[in-house]
Structures are given as C-alpha cells and as structure tokens.
Amino acid sequence: MQADFSYEPVYDGAGCQLGVTILADRDAVRAQMRDDAVAAGFRVLECCRLDEFASGSIAALGDLVLVDCLVADAETMALLARLDMRAGKSGAQMVISTGMDALDAVFGCFSMSGAQILVEPGRAERIIAVGRVLADVPNLRLRELAEEDRLMLLRLTEQVGKMAERIERLSPGQREGGGAFRLEAASQAWRGQDAAGGAGNGANLPEAAAIRAVIRRRQMRAKFFDADLFADPAWDILLDLAAARAGRERVSVTSLCIAAGVPATTALRWITQMVESGLLLRIPDPADRRRAHIALADSTADAMARYFREAGIGSSQQIAAVA
C-alpha cells in the first residue's frame, strides 16, 4: 500500500498542529515513517536515531511518538522506559515497532503509556497504527484517502470493536466499582501460588498435561484444514496460560504470541485487550523489573477450572474432545 493519502493538518484544542517524534536507527524506515506522519497531518518535531535522541538535550515529546527498535540492549531499554513514563504523564500516543527477538524486553518497558506494539510490521501496518491514533482526534477533516486505505482502516476499526465486545463477554464478571474493563493488580494469594514450590495452582485446574493434550488436539486440525478456519486467539491464549498456571510456569509475551496462533501484532492486541479487561494480569519479572510475564487473573483461572470440570477434563486420562 502506498502512502497516497493526505489529511488536513491535525490540531489540538488550542489550535496548535499536533507534533510527532520519530526515533529509528534504520535510515530507510525512519524516512518512511517521517513521510507517512507528514502525510497524516503531523508536524515533525524530532526525527533521529535512538542514541542521538538519548544523548541530546531533553525536548518535549510530540503528541505521537513513533519508534522502531530491533535491539534490546540496556541503553535502548532504559530510553524506552523513560519514553513510556513521559508519554504516560503527558498523554502522548506511542507506536513501537520491534522484532520477535526483542519483543519480551520491549513489552516490559511499556506499562504506563498504552503503547501500540507492532511486531515486524510492514509499512501498511504502521500507517494503520497512525490511523488508530488519528481516530481519537476530534473534528479531524479528511481531504483525500484512497479507497483501499479507507477500507483497510474501516476493517481495523471493526476488528478492534468486535474484539472488545468479545472480550467483554468473556470477562468472568463485572468488578465492584467498575466495568469489565477495569484493570486489577494480582492478588497476594496468586503471587504466593505462582512462586516456585507454591501450593498448587489455586484454582483446581486439571493437570498441565491434560490441558496440553487439549491444545495438541486443537493444533492437530491444521494438518487437515486451513488453520485460519479455526483462528481463536483469545481461547488459545487462555488455554496456554491455564496449562502454565497448572504447571506453575511463567509465560513470556513472545511464547504467548506464538501460542495464540495468529500474527504476533494481532496476538499483542488480544493480550492487551485481555489485560485491560481484567482477564489476564501483567506480572513484573522478579529477576528483571524491565521485563514482564502474563498470567491468568484468579477469577479467570476459576472460570477455566469450572469449564474443564464440565468438559470432563480432570487428568491426563480424562480428556474430552473440545470444539
């Protein structure tokens, strides 16, 4: 998809054109991101390498921050953590591009800003991410947009809306004092159960081997049919985390994206929505606070345990066929 779209400049409530900060070490990607941001109506405030931005004088962030980061060294992760904190306080929107090798480290840097994280994206995916940012800008005037781009953004909006509705239905129940999209921290009881040598999985889940067998049966269908026919990332995520909890294992974001059976960027959108809904928890790695793991919330684990009981899945010898 070519960047043949063009918006009127976008302004904030004070009438100032919205600015963008672009950070990328790859020259071609940085130039491409700049062209697309300008075409979308943003004013470029910074456009440089990550190390150049880190070593320069502190400047105000743009309303949008675009980052391309494939290296997970200490200096880069420290910069990303600072950007997350600044964006979280200022309300800036962040779009981060990374690769599978650096995904766990990059994901662990973002807990305050609600960043969109894209995994090995093409140009079209980056443009869509910018489009999602623009969708939140009030009174945006569209001057020209190619039909292909318009349809792609429409499909994305529909996809995200359906995802939120589906997760809302999946949520084990409304939290007291808020809706299903209220974020809760892990309970002290869960932390104790998760520790090595803890007392069971705390939700009467089946043996991990029994849940893994269900997962293998689901994956077996891809030998006979197109795997896209059965794509169900939310359920695959829940199954993988249930097996991990039953076996008292920690799950990284990278491994969970693989388990979801969909492209990593799509899997990350599901994981983010499920964390925001309270179905899943983001757990800091005790050995490295810059990293994070994903786990079932206690209420979700209880719901999964009830499902397995009704499905007749209680041990590795009691596995029922699951649709």
UniProtKB/TrEMBL annotation:
Signal peptide range: none
Descriptive protein name: DNA-binding transcriptional regulator, MarR family
Keywords recorded for this protein, A-Z: DNA-binding
Key word DNA-binding present: yes
Residue ranges of the TM segments: none
Gene3D superfamilies xrefs: Winged helix-like DNA-binding domain superfamily/Winged helix DNA-binding domain (1.10.10.10)
GO MF annotation, one: DNA binding
